[in-house]
Amino acid sequence: MLLRALIVLLLCMNLGVAIWWAAHHEPAMPVAPATDPGVASLTLLSETEQQPRAEAEELSVDPQAPGPGSVCLSLGPFSTPADLRKAMNALMPQVESIQYREVPGVSLRGYRVYLPAAGSRAEALEAARSLATHGVSDTYVVTAGDQQNTVSLGIFRELENATQRREQVAALGYNPTVEARTEPVQQWWIDLAAPADFVWQSVLPGTALKAVSAPCTEAAPTP
C-alpha cells in the first residue's frame, strides 16, 4: 500500500512540474542604451566619408565663364600656402572665375663678393696674402666645387653692403665680383577673371604682389 502511494505521489509531482514549465515565461532582459547619456554614438568610417564627398561635389560646380568685358589677371607670387588661401578667400566673392597654380621660383638669400678664380691654388693663396697686407684679412680661398680657387671677400644680406665691399677691394687694384645668392623655392600664382572695373588692390591692400595681364579662359574651381 505504501509503495502504491509513493508512486502516485511521484506521478503527481512530475505532472505539476510539467504544468509549471509549460506555463512559465522568462522575463525580458532590459536593453542597455547604446551610449551613456550625453555621449555621441559611434559612426562608421563609411558614413563619415559621405559628407566630405558631398562638399567636394558642391565645389566641383563649373564656374561662371568670363563675360565679354572681363579683365583677366595673374596675381603673385605667394610664398606660402597660407598666404595663397587667405587671398583666394578674399577674392572669390569679387571675381567671376579663379584658380591657382604652383610654379618653381627662386629666393634671394644675399650677395657674395669674391675675386674670380685664379689659375691655380697657389695664385689664389698669393692673392689672399696680398690682400692681407692691405688690411683685408677676412678672406678665404675656396678649394673645391664650382668656385674653386676663387677668393671669397664676404657674404652680405644687403646689396649696398656688398657693393661697398667690392669698391673697397677694387680701390686696391683688384677686380672683385658681386654675385646674388639664390635658392629654389615653390611659389603660387592666382589666375582670375573679373569685371572690368575690378581693382584687386582694394581686396588685397598692402601687399607686394605683381599683377600680370593674362588671356581670358574659363577657369576651373579650386579644390
Task: Kindly describe this structure.
The protein is built from seven helices and six strands, in the order H-H-H-E-H-E-H-E-E-H-E-H-E. The protein is of the alpha+beta class and 223 residues long. Among the domains are: 58-106 and 184-213, Alpha-Beta Plaits (2-Layer Sandwich), CATH 3.30.70; 108-183, Alpha-Beta Plaits, CATH 3.30.70. A six-stranded antiparallel sheet has the order 3-4-2-5-1-6, covered by helices on one side. It is elongated. The protein starts with a helix and ends in a 10-residue tail after the last strand. Mean pLDDT is 79; it is low at 39-63 and 219-223.
Summarize the entry for a quick read:
The protein has 223 residues and is an alpha+beta fold. It contains 7 helices and 6 strands.
Helix and strand succession? HHHEHEHEEHEHE
- Shape label: elongated
CATH topology of the domain at 58-106 and 184-213: Alpha-Beta Plaits
Biggest sheet, strands in spatial order? 3-4-2-5-1-6
In the CATH scheme, the class of the domain at 58-106 and 184-213 would be Alpha Beta
Termini separation: 99 Å
Number of helices: 7
CATH second-level architecture of the domain at 58-106 and 184-213: 2-Layer Sandwich
What's the total number of strands?
6
Radius of gyration: 42 Å
Oligomeric category: single chain
Q: How is the main sheet built?
A: 6 strands, antiparallel
The overall pLDDT average reads: 79
Percentage of β-strand residues = 25-35%
- Which range best describes the helical content: under 10%, 10-25%, 25-40%, 40-55%, 55-70% or over 70%? 25-40%
Report the structural category: alpha+beta
Catalogue the unreliable spans.
39-63, 219-223
